[in-house]
Input
Amino acid sequence: MHSTETGDPPYAPAVPSMLDLVRLSSRRLFLPGSEELYRQIALLTEMGPGLEVLDVASGKGVPLEYFVTEFGVTASGVEIDPSMVEQADSWSRELGAGDRLQFQSGRSDRLPYRDDIFDIAIGEIALANHCEPEEAVRELVRVTKPGGFVVLVQLVWKAPVDETRRTILSEHLGARPMMVVEWRRMLREAGVEDVQVEDWSDEETAFRSEAVKPFADFREIFTLAERLSILRRAWQRWGLRGVSTALSRESELHKLLTNERILGLDLFRGRKVGGDASGAEEKDSADLGKTGLATEAVEGEARVGASAEEDAPAHQEQDNKPETAGLPLFGDVPAREEE
Output
Protein backbone atom coordinates (compact mmCIF):
# COMPACT_ATOMS: atom_id res chain seq x y z
CA MET A 1 0.00 0.00 0.00
CA HIS A 2 1.75 3.18 -1.24
CA SER A 3 5.06 2.04 0.22
CA THR A 4 8.58 3.03 -0.75
CA GLU A 5 11.92 1.53 0.21
CA THR A 6 13.73 3.37 3.04
CA GLY A 7 16.85 1.28 3.52
CA ASP A 8 16.89 1.99 7.27
CA PRO A 9 19.29 -0.02 9.45
CA PRO A 10 17.73 -2.64 11.77
CA TYR A 11 16.60 -1.62 15.24
CA ALA A 12 19.24 -2.85 17.67
CA PRO A 13 19.38 -1.17 21.10
CA ALA A 14 22.35 -2.26 23.21
CA VAL A 15 20.14 -2.82 26.27
CA PRO A 16 16.41 -3.58 26.24
CA SER A 17 14.01 -0.93 27.51
CA MET A 18 10.96 -1.86 29.57
CA LEU A 19 8.82 -1.56 26.45
CA ASP A 20 11.17 -4.00 24.66
CA LEU A 21 10.71 -6.50 27.48
CA VAL A 22 6.92 -6.17 27.52
CA ARG A 23 6.82 -6.68 23.76
CA LEU A 24 8.73 -9.98 24.15
CA SER A 25 5.69 -11.49 25.82
CA SER A 26 3.90 -14.22 23.90
CA ARG A 27 0.64 -12.55 24.91
CA ARG A 28 -0.94 -10.06 22.52
CA LEU A 29 -1.58 -6.96 24.61
CA PHE A 30 -3.03 -3.53 23.99
CA LEU A 31 -0.10 -1.27 24.85
CA PRO A 32 -0.67 1.18 26.32
CA GLY A 33 -4.11 1.27 27.86
CA SER A 34 -6.76 -1.26 26.95
CA GLU A 35 -9.24 -2.23 24.27
CA GLU A 36 -11.48 0.50 25.67
CA LEU A 37 -8.92 3.15 24.72
CA TYR A 38 -8.78 1.97 21.11
CA ARG A 39 -12.55 1.71 20.91
CA GLN A 40 -12.64 5.37 21.90
CA ILE A 41 -10.14 6.21 19.15
CA ALA A 42 -12.34 4.44 16.61
CA LEU A 43 -15.41 6.39 17.75
CA LEU A 44 -13.67 9.75 17.81
CA THR A 45 -12.22 9.26 14.32
CA GLU A 46 -15.44 7.90 12.83
CA MET A 47 -13.82 4.65 11.71
CA GLY A 48 -15.67 2.52 9.20
CA PRO A 49 -15.35 0.45 6.02
CA GLY A 50 -13.48 2.10 3.19
CA LEU A 51 -11.17 4.18 5.41
CA GLU A 52 -7.39 3.72 5.48
CA VAL A 53 -5.72 3.75 8.89
CA LEU A 54 -2.03 4.05 9.72
CA ASP A 55 -0.53 3.06 13.07
CA VAL A 56 3.09 4.17 13.70
CA ALA A 57 5.18 2.31 16.30
CA SER A 58 2.59 -0.42 15.84
CA GLY A 59 4.42 -3.20 17.71
CA LYS A 60 2.73 -6.56 17.18
CA GLY A 61 -0.24 -4.88 15.53
CA VAL A 62 -2.89 -5.61 18.16
CA PRO A 63 -4.74 -2.27 17.77
CA LEU A 64 -4.77 -2.52 13.96
CA GLU A 65 -6.08 -6.07 14.10
CA TYR A 66 -8.87 -4.75 16.32
CA PHE A 67 -9.68 -1.88 13.93
CA VAL A 68 -9.79 -4.21 10.93
CA THR A 69 -11.98 -6.88 12.51
CA GLU A 70 -14.34 -4.57 14.42
CA PHE A 71 -14.65 -1.58 12.08
CA GLY A 72 -13.80 -2.97 8.63
CA VAL A 73 -11.01 -0.51 7.82
CA THR A 74 -7.93 -1.14 5.69
CA ALA A 75 -4.85 -0.72 7.87
CA SER A 76 -1.07 -0.34 7.71
CA GLY A 77 1.46 -0.53 10.51
CA VAL A 78 4.99 0.87 10.65
CA GLU A 79 7.40 -0.40 13.30
CA ILE A 80 11.16 0.16 13.58
CA ASP A 81 11.80 -3.27 15.14
CA PRO A 82 11.76 -5.93 12.36
CA SER A 83 11.07 -8.72 14.87
CA MET A 84 7.78 -7.04 15.79
CA VAL A 85 6.89 -6.70 12.10
CA GLU A 86 7.47 -10.43 11.57
CA GLN A 87 5.15 -11.30 14.45
CA ALA A 88 2.50 -8.86 13.26
CA ASP A 89 2.65 -10.29 9.74
CA SER A 90 2.31 -13.82 11.10
CA TRP A 91 -0.80 -12.93 13.10
CA SER A 92 -2.25 -11.08 10.13
CA ARG A 93 -1.92 -14.20 7.97
CA GLU A 94 -3.52 -16.38 10.65
CA LEU A 95 -6.35 -13.89 10.85
CA GLY A 96 -6.83 -14.10 7.09
CA ALA A 97 -6.67 -10.32 6.80
CA GLY A 98 -3.60 -10.03 4.59
CA ASP A 99 -5.46 -7.98 1.98
CA ARG A 100 -6.63 -5.40 4.55
CA LEU A 101 -3.79 -5.43 7.09
CA GLN A 102 -0.12 -4.89 6.26
CA PHE A 103 3.04 -4.14 8.25
CA GLN A 104 6.52 -2.97 7.39
CA SER A 105 9.71 -1.79 9.06
CA GLY A 106 10.42 1.91 9.07
CA ARG A 107 11.36 4.95 11.09
CA SER A 108 8.74 7.29 12.51
CA ASP A 109 10.60 10.31 11.13
CA ARG A 110 10.84 8.85 7.60
CA LEU A 111 7.58 7.08 6.90
CA PRO A 112 7.60 5.01 3.70
CA TYR A 113 4.49 6.61 2.21
CA ARG A 114 3.58 9.45 -0.12
CA ASP A 115 1.82 12.60 1.09
CA ASP A 116 -1.92 12.66 1.88
CA ILE A 117 -2.59 8.91 1.93
CA PHE A 118 -4.43 7.98 5.14
CA ASP A 119 -7.81 8.97 6.51
CA ILE A 120 -6.60 8.34 10.08
CA ALA A 121 -2.99 8.31 11.35
CA ILE A 122 -2.13 7.18 14.89
CA GLY A 123 1.16 7.64 16.75
CA GLU A 124 1.72 5.15 19.58
CA ILE A 125 3.86 5.71 22.69
CA ALA A 126 7.09 4.50 21.03
CA LEU A 127 6.61 7.03 18.21
CA ALA A 128 9.69 9.07 19.18
CA ASN A 129 11.91 6.53 20.95
CA HIS A 130 14.47 6.69 18.12
CA CYS A 131 13.99 10.19 16.69
CA GLU A 132 12.97 13.74 17.49
CA PRO A 133 9.26 13.90 18.38
CA GLU A 134 8.72 17.02 16.22
CA GLU A 135 9.94 15.15 13.14
CA ALA A 136 7.79 12.11 13.90
CA VAL A 137 4.67 14.25 14.36
CA ARG A 138 5.36 16.13 11.11
CA GLU A 139 5.65 12.82 9.26
CA LEU A 140 2.42 11.54 10.79
CA VAL A 141 0.63 14.66 9.59
CA ARG A 142 2.32 14.62 6.15
CA VAL A 143 0.87 11.21 5.23
CA THR A 144 -2.64 12.11 6.49
CA LYS A 145 -5.22 13.39 4.00
CA PRO A 146 -6.33 17.02 4.39
CA GLY A 147 -9.23 16.96 6.82
CA GLY A 148 -8.17 13.53 8.10
CA PHE A 149 -7.74 12.64 11.75
CA VAL A 150 -4.37 12.66 13.52
CA VAL A 151 -4.22 10.81 16.84
CA LEU A 152 -1.48 10.50 19.46
CA VAL A 153 -1.51 8.05 22.36
CA GLN A 154 1.36 9.35 24.45
CA LEU A 155 2.96 9.44 27.85
CA VAL A 156 2.94 12.92 29.38
CA TRP A 157 4.83 14.50 32.24
CA LYS A 158 2.46 15.53 35.02
CA ALA A 159 5.20 17.71 36.54
CA PRO A 160 8.30 19.44 35.14
CA VAL A 161 11.33 17.17 34.74
CA ASP A 162 14.74 18.51 33.74
CA GLU A 163 16.27 17.42 30.44
CA THR A 164 18.83 15.02 31.93
CA ARG A 165 16.15 13.17 33.87
CA ARG A 166 13.88 13.13 30.83
CA THR A 167 16.59 11.50 28.74
CA ILE A 168 17.41 8.80 31.29
CA LEU A 169 13.79 7.92 31.99
CA SER A 170 12.87 7.88 28.30
CA GLU A 171 15.72 5.48 27.57
CA HIS A 172 14.65 3.17 30.38
CA LEU A 173 10.98 3.25 29.38
CA GLY A 174 11.53 2.88 25.65
CA ALA A 175 9.14 5.81 25.09
CA ARG A 176 9.55 9.58 25.17
CA PRO A 177 7.12 11.47 27.42
CA MET A 178 6.51 15.19 26.84
CA MET A 179 4.42 17.86 28.55
CA VAL A 180 0.84 18.15 27.27
CA VAL A 181 1.52 21.66 25.97
CA GLU A 182 4.56 20.35 24.06
CA TRP A 183 2.56 17.64 22.25
CA ARG A 184 -0.17 20.16 21.48
CA ARG A 185 2.31 22.68 20.12
CA MET A 186 3.93 20.05 17.89
CA LEU A 187 0.57 19.06 16.45
CA ARG A 188 -0.44 22.66 15.83
CA GLU A 189 2.87 23.56 14.16
CA ALA A 190 2.64 20.45 11.95
CA GLY A 191 -0.76 21.58 10.64
CA VAL A 192 -3.31 19.97 12.97
CA GLU A 193 -6.31 21.95 14.18
CA ASP A 194 -9.10 21.43 16.72
CA VAL A 195 -6.78 19.41 18.99
CA GLN A 196 -8.66 17.82 21.89
CA VAL A 197 -7.18 15.85 24.79
CA GLU A 198 -8.40 13.04 27.04
CA ASP A 199 -6.53 11.99 30.18
CA TRP A 200 -6.58 8.19 30.37
CA SER A 201 -4.71 7.97 33.66
CA ASP A 202 -7.17 10.20 35.52
CA GLU A 203 -9.46 8.31 37.88
CA GLU A 204 -11.97 11.16 37.81
CA THR A 205 -12.72 10.89 34.08
CA ALA A 206 -16.40 10.00 34.00
CA PHE A 207 -16.76 8.41 30.57
CA ARG A 208 -14.46 5.46 31.35
CA SER A 209 -15.03 2.53 33.66
CA GLU A 210 -11.63 2.87 35.35
CA ALA A 211 -8.28 4.65 35.17
CA VAL A 212 -5.51 3.21 33.01
CA LYS A 213 -1.92 2.97 34.15
CA PRO A 214 0.25 5.21 31.99
CA PHE A 215 2.80 2.45 31.41
CA ALA A 216 2.62 -1.32 31.64
CA ASP A 217 3.79 -2.58 35.04
CA PHE A 218 6.02 -5.57 34.29
CA ARG A 219 5.43 -7.13 37.72
CA GLU A 220 1.66 -6.76 37.71
CA ILE A 221 0.87 -7.79 34.13
CA PHE A 222 2.89 -11.00 33.95
CA THR A 223 3.06 -14.11 36.10
CA LEU A 224 6.43 -15.29 37.38
CA ALA A 225 6.56 -17.95 34.66
CA GLU A 226 5.83 -15.35 31.99
CA ARG A 227 8.50 -13.00 33.36
CA LEU A 228 11.08 -15.79 33.29
CA SER A 229 10.10 -16.61 29.71
CA ILE A 230 10.48 -12.96 28.68
CA LEU A 231 13.90 -12.71 30.37
CA ARG A 232 15.02 -15.89 28.63
CA ARG A 233 14.14 -14.34 25.27
CA ALA A 234 15.90 -11.14 26.29
CA TRP A 235 19.02 -13.11 27.22
CA GLN A 236 19.04 -14.74 23.77
CA ARG A 237 18.88 -11.31 22.11
CA TRP A 238 20.86 -9.03 24.43
CA GLY A 239 22.99 -11.38 26.53
CA LEU A 240 23.57 -11.50 30.27
CA ARG A 241 24.59 -7.84 30.56
CA GLY A 242 21.45 -6.70 28.80
CA VAL A 243 19.19 -8.78 31.04
CA SER A 244 20.90 -7.69 34.28
CA THR A 245 20.70 -4.03 33.26
CA ALA A 246 17.04 -4.42 32.29
CA LEU A 247 16.23 -6.00 35.67
CA SER A 248 17.93 -3.14 37.49
CA ARG A 249 15.97 -0.62 35.44
CA GLU A 250 12.72 -2.50 36.03
CA SER A 251 13.18 -2.31 39.79
CA GLU A 252 13.87 1.43 39.71
CA LEU A 253 11.01 2.14 37.30
CA HIS A 254 8.60 0.13 39.41
CA LYS A 255 9.46 2.25 42.46
CA LEU A 256 9.29 5.45 40.44
CA LEU A 257 5.94 4.79 38.77
CA THR A 258 4.42 3.40 41.97
CA ASN A 259 5.58 6.09 44.38
CA GLU A 260 5.83 9.17 42.16
CA ARG A 261 2.87 9.98 39.92
CA ILE A 262 4.84 11.99 37.39
CA LEU A 263 3.61 10.17 34.29
CA GLY A 264 0.19 10.22 32.67
CA LEU A 265 -1.31 8.72 29.52
CA ASP A 266 -3.16 11.10 27.20
CA LEU A 267 -5.13 10.70 23.98
CA PHE A 268 -4.79 13.60 21.51
CA ARG A 269 -7.14 13.92 18.54
CA GLY A 270 -7.22 16.61 15.85
CA ARG A 271 -7.71 17.12 12.12
CA LYS A 272 -5.16 17.96 9.48
CA VAL A 273 -5.79 21.42 8.09
CA GLY A 274 -7.65 21.37 4.77
CA GLY A 275 -10.48 19.38 3.24
CA ASP A 276 -14.04 19.75 4.51
CA ALA A 277 -13.05 19.38 8.17
CA SER A 278 -12.04 23.02 8.69
CA GLY A 279 -15.62 24.23 8.50
CA ALA A 280 -16.87 21.43 10.75
CA GLU A 281 -14.87 22.35 13.84
CA GLU A 282 -17.91 23.67 15.68
CA LYS A 283 -19.89 20.49 15.07
CA ASP A 284 -16.96 18.32 16.14
CA SER A 285 -16.63 20.10 19.46
CA ALA A 286 -20.32 19.60 20.20
CA ASP A 287 -20.21 15.92 19.25
CA LEU A 288 -17.08 15.27 21.28
CA GLY A 289 -18.72 16.72 24.36
CA LYS A 290 -21.29 13.91 24.16
CA THR A 291 -18.57 11.23 24.17
CA GLY A 292 -16.68 12.72 27.07
CA LEU A 293 -13.73 14.24 25.18
CA ALA A 294 -12.64 17.36 27.07
CA THR A 295 -13.05 20.68 25.30
CA GLU A 296 -10.20 23.14 25.19
CA ALA A 297 -11.74 25.23 27.97
CA VAL A 298 -12.30 22.27 30.28
CA GLU A 299 -8.87 20.91 29.54
CA GLY A 300 -7.30 24.26 30.34
CA GLU A 301 -8.95 24.22 33.78
CA ALA A 302 -8.01 20.59 34.43
CA ARG A 303 -4.42 21.24 33.41
CA VAL A 304 -4.15 24.19 35.80
CA GLY A 305 -3.99 26.74 33.05
CA ALA A 306 -1.67 24.74 30.78
CA SER A 307 -3.45 25.77 27.58
CA ALA A 308 -3.32 29.45 28.53
CA GLU A 309 0.42 29.16 29.09
CA GLU A 310 1.07 27.12 25.95
CA ASP A 311 3.22 29.77 24.31
CA ALA A 312 5.19 30.63 27.46
CA PRO A 313 8.93 29.75 27.54
CA ALA A 314 9.78 26.34 28.98
CA HIS A 315 11.59 27.85 31.99
CA GLN A 316 8.42 29.69 33.00
CA GLU A 317 6.46 26.41 33.01
CA GLN A 318 8.98 24.85 35.36
CA ASP A 319 9.10 27.88 37.66
CA ASN A 320 5.34 27.69 38.20
CA LYS A 321 5.12 23.96 39.03
CA PRO A 322 6.44 21.69 41.80
CA GLU A 323 9.92 20.20 41.60
CA THR A 324 10.41 16.46 41.13
CA ALA A 325 13.77 16.05 42.86
CA GLY A 326 14.35 12.89 44.86
CA LEU A 327 12.90 10.41 42.37
CA PRO A 328 14.35 6.91 42.97
CA LEU A 329 15.68 6.56 39.43
CA PHE A 330 17.84 9.64 39.69
CA GLY A 331 19.58 9.25 43.03
CA ASP A 332 19.05 10.35 46.59
CA VAL A 333 18.30 14.05 46.14
CA PRO A 334 16.17 15.65 48.88
CA ALA A 335 12.68 16.49 47.69
CA ARG A 336 11.30 19.97 48.30
CA GLU A 337 9.13 20.09 51.42
CA GLU A 338 5.47 20.82 50.97
CA GLU A 339 4.40 24.33 51.85
